[in-house]
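Escalated from tier 1: uridine-5'-diphosphate holo job.
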Amino acid sequence: MIHLVDIDKLPALSDYSQVAQLTHAVEELRSEASTLVPRLHGRRVWMVNSTAQGGGVAEMLPRLVSMLNELGVHTRWAVMNTDRADFFPLTKRIHNLVHGSGQPEFTAEERAVYDTVSREVAAEFRQMLGPNDVLVVHDPQPAGMGAVLKKELGLPCVWRCHIGLDDQTAQTRAAWEFLEPHVRPYDHFVFTASEYIPNYLSGHVSIIHPALDPFSHKNRELSVHKLVGILANASLVPGAHPVLTAPFDPPAMRVQSDGTFAPATLPEDIGLLYRPTVTQISRWDKLKGWQALLEGFVLLKQRARTSHQPERQHRALEYARLVLGGPEPSAVQDDPEAVGVLERLIDSYKALPPEVQRDVVLLSLPMASRKSNALMVNTLQHCSSVVVQNSLREGFGLTVTEAMWKRISVLGTTACGIRQQIRHGVDGHLNAHPEDPAAIADALEGLLTNAPLRMAYARRAQRRVHDEFLVFRQLARWLRVLTETVDPERHTLPPVV
Ligand code: UDP
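Tier 2 regenerated the structure:
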């Protein structure tokens, strides 16, 4: 089955360009569009994926589709589905294998299921297509369907793969071997990092990074009143005054010393508006390096007691607090691994001596309202001296981009996605040993005790996001991919970077 998704009205490019800090980026996009969009004249672009809601791709597509239309590229969004119960478990398995985990074998039945669904959906989608259409197919689920249409109709087709691993294992090889006949027929391929490209694809491959929307709730600028209001609404600071907006229901919850959850103002104010705060916000996934980060922070606190830092630096370490935040437990009930990671963190927290426990905050962020959740993430990142993303592996790491854009200094790791963003010692610090608490403690100490260094990283980090990881740059790259795909003879442009 295939259905079309209509997109709610989103901010226009002219709205963005009124913000002084964004004017240049929008102008650059418009100038690039003025030469590229005419080459797409008369074309209709289809973005195809497998879900209209949930997940990064579904979140990013409305904005991409809306902005392409605004620039004059007729673009539609179609979502594939199927009644066959064994299809999505199979594509989930492929997804996990691409990330290096799972059983690296496929049965003939599994291959047949994928072939059948691909052909069924293609047969239905074909009715909606015209001779001037261009397909942009996202991720493995609809890849086979796109390949069928490519072979039957000869339309220009792009495959955009949002996943990948910078390593080759039996698992990744099995997944890419499975996908090979379903992706090879495409004209052009788009990956998030060159490390993720399977070796049988060469030639027409472009890199497009994920990007930020500076007007989104997670990334928009907040006035001081708005920021404090959100913190009060979320119970992240005590409500000392009335605020205009209603409290979030439920509020952010914090793990207490007995392991239970209570509003985050208990047992006392976290100190987000006063203290040097080190924050990591992520999914409860062991690859996010939570445990070592907690241990690194505890080590830092122990060291601080005996350190011979000058008074001011000593206080920075003494007052610092660690905030570890992720989705509320009920939102991850169907993910036993996530439940396990959170439970283990809670156990480690309960075992901390009271004087260290006071400085560590485990937060459960409600997911019922995406807007409230995004605003909470926004304020927590804003109130941080250092945002950490201690990932052992990372596809890209939007949390890093989010903090960089807010001009917060970041402690990242050398995981593939993070090193695409941060240049070590330029726009942040990359720790090559995310499982080593001592290395984390060293890096945190270096950042917390050196405000000028943090500021220098933060300034350059925002500039880097402005130049590379905002939606405007992403859109310009899409325009290049689309024009090169429909018009492969005309290589008048420098290669897409
Ligand atoms: N995030 C969120 N609420 C949470 C935890 C995470 O909104 O409680 C967001 C986070 O701000 C980021 C996204 O989830 O935008 C995670 O994307 P990222 O690329 O960092 O990692 P992934 O989860 O895709 O591995």
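The first strand starts at residue 2 and ends at 5.
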